[in-house]
Structure formats: C-alpha cells, structure tokens
Amino acid sequence: MAMNVLFAAFEAAPFIKTGGLGDVAGSLPGALNNKSCNVRVILPKLRQIPESYRSQMETLCVFQVPLGWRSQYCGIQTLKVGKIQYYFVDNEFYFGRDAAYGYGDDPERVAFFSKAILECLQHLPDFFPDIIHVNDWHTALVPVFLHEQYWGMEQYRSIRTIFTIHNLKFQGICGEFALGDILGLHECKNAADQLHWGYDAINFMQGALYYSDFVTTVSPSYAEEICTSAYGEGLDGILSQRRDRLCGILNAIDTAKFSPKKAVVPFSKEDLSGKAACKAQLQAELGLPQKPDTPLLILISRLTSQKGLDLLAGCLSELAGQDMQLAILGTGDDYYQRLLGNYAAAFPDKIAFRCAFDEPLSCRMYAGADILLMPSLFEPCGLSQMIAMAYGTLPVVRETGGLRDSVVPYNMYTGEGTGFGFRNADSRELRDCLMGIFTLYSTAPDVWKQLQTQAMGQDFSWRVSANAYRALYRKVLKR
Ligand code: ADP
Fold first, then answer.
1. Whole-prediction pTM value?
2. Mean pLDDT taken over the chain
C-alpha cells in the first residue's frame, strides 16, 4: 500500500516563492510522488498567488478552526497542477495581505495555518495522511498540536511527523502569552515546558524539535554544524540530544526549470557556445560594457548578513579596481541595498545592481554569467550555487553547510572541481580567492571550460534525495 504524505509549507513555486523553501516545496513533492508514495501539498492561499491559479481552485470544505479563544473561518480549496494535488487554506484575514511574511501577527497566522492543517483532515473527502512532512517554523506547531490536541482521536494517533529545517535562524519566538492566547495550550504542562524559551517566551521551532518523530535538515554538513553552539542558534543542546533522530538530506533543484537548454540562447555542456551570446545579452540588459573576456560575476540573493554581504563589502573597492564586472540581484536589508546602490552608481561600468525579486531575470543572469558569488556565513543548503553550476556558472562559496556538500573546490593538481571555495568568514580570504580565479579565467580558458563541463555534468535532480526521504518515511512508519 502506498504511503500517504501531506507536505506542508508556507510557500511553494509556482504559486509563490520568496526563497529556497519555495523552490524545494515546489519541486520535491513531484519527485517523491510514485507508486509507493502518494504526496499532496498544503499551502496557505496567499494573496500573491497569481489569479490564473486562484481562479481554477475549487472549494472542498469549509469549517471553523479553534485557535486559543478564537474560532476562525477556514476554507480548503484544491487544485491539481501536473501530478500533484494541492490544498489551499483560505482565510482572507490571515492570508489576504500584501506580503507573505513580516507582520506583527505572523505567529498567529502560522499557528492558524498549522491548526487548519490538522483540522482539515476530518473534512477531506478522500485523503488521510500517514506522514505529515512540515517545513520550517511556519508549520512547526503541527507536531505540537497533533500530540497535545488531536491525539485523543484514534485516527490521528497513527500519523507520524517529519520536521525539516530549511533555516534555523527563523524559529518563531514570541511572548509566553501566546501559549494560551493563540495556541490554547496554557493548561498543558508538556507544551509549556517544551516550548519555553528564555525568560518569558516560547519558541515554535523548539516545539517541533521535541514533538516530531524525525528532524531533517537540508544538507549533511548543516546537520553536523547545527549541533554546535557556533551554528545552533541556541537550539544546539536539543539538536545534539536528538542526534539519533536528525539527519541531513541534500536539496536539489528543478532541473527542467533551471536548464541551459531554456536559456535565451540555449546551450549545453557539449556545446557551450550559446553561453557567450547569453553573456553579451545580459551585459547589454544590465547596462554593462559588452566585453566577452571580462569575468562577469553575479550574486542573486536575499540581502542579509547570512549571505556574507559584509565579506563582499569588505573587498568591493578592490574588486572594482580589477578587470571584472559584478551584477547583483536581490532585496533585503536597507543597509545593503543602499551600499550596493552606491557602489553601482560609483562604478557604472563595473557594477550593476537590481533591487528586485525577479525570477526570469535571475535565470538570464545564471545563464549569462561566469561566476556566482556565495560567501555565506552559514548556509543550510543553498540552491543558487546548484542552479549556477547547472548553467556552467562556477560558484565561489564559503565552505560551510550545503555549499560544502554541493561544490567541489577546484584542485589545481588533479583538475577536479565544480567551483571554488574558501574556508574562513574573512574578506581577505574572499578577495584572495577571487584574485586567483581572475588569473585562472584570463590565463587558462581550457581549465575553465573543463570546470564548467564538470559542474554541468553533476546530477542536481531530486532522484537521490527523494529516495532518501521515502526511505526515511518508511523507517518512521515502522517505529
Ligand atoms: P535562501 O533560501 O536562503 O534565500 P537559497 O539559495 O536556498 O537561499 O535559495 C534562493 C532562491 O531564491 C534561489 O532560487 C534564487 O535564485 C532565488 N532568489 C533569491 N533572490 C532572488 C531575487 N532577488 N530574484 C529572483 N530570485 C531570487
């Protein structure tokens, strides 16, 4: 009999994506779905979902969701895209907003979503999950509610939960009042103990670490790192305690979507010639001089300190003195937006900055660039480096987390490599690494091409990781 898996996330491509979680939730379920695994996906019906999808959704059921002292309207709508059946949790008050995240009542919004996921199982006509696979702090309360508020119902007791950490930085910490006011768990000692955080707060993610049957994160190295105080964001104690129920499974990408065969001028690892045309077009589009032999670096990222922007800022003036071009696409902290805007204004022939979230432009950049910068301070997995490699754009990464697990640094003696790496969170190391890369680029085009071919020859599909998730589901169900 096939396992029924309900995959819950706050965002998923193609409906809405603000980062890596959206990519993963958009591509992993399709890869998991097979004869032995029947996956359905549940998402909030956020206002940002394009009308073309919204207009096709059908309402399956309507009910009230208890949330602390509240009773909130909830509609479940459904839509099949490709082979996947999606459920959308509809509530205008919580999800009809201008942005997906960033509101003072985000804890209440995600608590509602988590509760609605469990509540709807009593109403869905033809699906009951064996596994609920929840992702990040937005759905971290599902295992908590399941054990503390739904366990009394026989059918719920067979459900097992997997919690995947895509980023440990965002945990869902809020005042203790929320335990009763929002979660309705003030009389539950277990929950009070296991969610308790600091002096007078609660932590949703900590709850998931205690209550879920298994915890995964998105790369083996990050799974190791988060058990240390340097990367554990205060949760390393409990993560180490649960080491026997924690593992890392490397993310992958949607190889059909991020494919050089779909570039403006298509190319492949066998015939890279189209990439030069993509580069020329990209330079023109970004207002940079069309110089085929000048290395074109890109950075496509949320603009936050996590992404190593301070390391880049520390050597940006020196880089601007080199024969190179740098194009940045990203939105985020005001400080970095202003800093990059200023550099772009000061060096218009060298640095281009697009302050936007623009997926089509990101694809043109991955296709047309030579080098991707990803000097992250920590990186649970990172997808940009994989997308870049798929396009023969060599990543320069700090060797941490998923970057370490997915990029083979160039070895000048053996010729191995799919990119470049540096060890420490230090601007000078990044600068020195880049200087070496510029020399290699200008003096050894054959080596460069060899590295591009090796990068493009890697398997970035979900095949291996989807197998690992299915094996984990089976293991958890056997327990
Ligand atoms: P994170 O999830 O930490 O933001 P990842 O590297 O895992 O980082 O995933 C980022 C995803 O979001 C990649 O698909 C990347 O191309 C995309 N992305 C990031 N910033 C932008 C942007 N400004 N415009 C378009 N795509 C972006």
1. 0.94
2. 97
